[in-house]
Amino acid sequence: MMGGPSENPELWAFLESLHCGEILSGTVTAIERFGVFVALDDGPDHPVFPGVGFITIPELSWRRIETAFDAVQVGQRVSAEFLQFDTWNLEARLSLRVTQPDPFQTFADRTAVGQKLHGRVTKLVPFGVFVQVTDGIEGLVHLRELTSAPVENPSGVVQASDEVTVVVTEIDRERRRLVLSRWQSSSDHR
Questions:
Q1: Is 53 in contact with 45 (CB distance < 8 Å)?
Q2: What are the DSSP calls for 70-134, one per residue?
Q3: Which of 27, 104, 153, 154 is least crowded, fewest Cβ atoms below 10 Å from its Cβ?
Q4: Mean pLDDT, rounded, for 70-79
Q5: How confident is the model over 110-144, as pLDDT tens digits?
Q6: What is the mean pLDDT of residues 145-157?
Q7: Which parts of the sequence belong to the S1 motif domain (predicted)?
Q8: Mean pLDDT of 94-107
Q9: Any idea what the CATH number is for the domain that residue 18 is in?
Q10: Would you put residue 165 in left (φ > 0), alpha (ψ -120 to 50) or beta?
Q11: Nearest 5°: phi and psi at 107?
């Protein structure tokens, strides 16, 4: 722990003055495996870290990204929303993604259950396959929805990067989840 208000009074006072939802601007100073440090324009320096602001990997982008480098570069200017005061590390936890439109909600606005979509298989998992139907949007086809005949394993039916036609069976805006079916989209199952 960095110590209480007595050790870093200026930083502590600054962090306590922030409100959830406030937008803070700054510059990306360092990119780590676990997230990104941001030097805030209006805040004091941090005694240990290269910035008072910190963005975890999931808060960088609505997309599923492998590393922070897929979302930001060192030296980049960012405006991010304040989430919480991390009193253990004396840092401002920030979110970059909430300041950007959520592509899932945009997709949900123009997509209906029952609609046919074309997509590409991105990942096989024991319970089904993930299909990317548009940039940044993936849906799950459960094993039982892959073909009309029961299968033990998705690899018997499709491979990663296969192009497939699917039909939308569920759009869950709250959980940002898209459920698809493959066999319902084939002509013999009208």
A1: no
A2: GT--TT-EEEEEEEEEETTTTEEEEESGGGS--HHHHHHHT--TT-EEEEEEEEEETTEEEEEEE
A3: 153
A4: 97
A5: 999 999 999 999 999 999 999 999 988 999 999 99
A6: 90
A7: 21-97, 114-183
A8: 96
A9: 2.40.50.140
A10: beta
A11: -65, -45
Q: What is the pLDDT of residue 190?
A: 38
Tokens of 74: 């060192």
pTM for the whole structure: 0.79
* Residue found under tokens 């609609």: 115
CA distance 26 to 51: 9
Residues 116 and 161 in one domain: yes
158-167 pLDDT, tens digit per residue, is: 999 999 999 9
In whole angstroms, what is the distance from residue 45 CA to residue 127 CA?
Answer: 48
What residues have CB less than 8 Å from 129, skipping those under 6 apart?
Answer: 121, 123, 140, 141, 146, 154, 158
Q: How many C-beta atoms surround the C-beta of residue 137 within 10 A?
A: 20
In this structure, the number of other CB atoms found within 10 A of the CB of residue 105 comes to 11
Domain ranges, residue 159: 103-185
Task: Decide if 165 contacts 117 (C-beta within 8 A).
Answer: yes
**Torsion angle, alpha carbons of 39, 43, 48, 54, to 10:** -50
- The total number of structural domains in the chain stands at 2
Provide the residue count of the chain.
Answer: 190
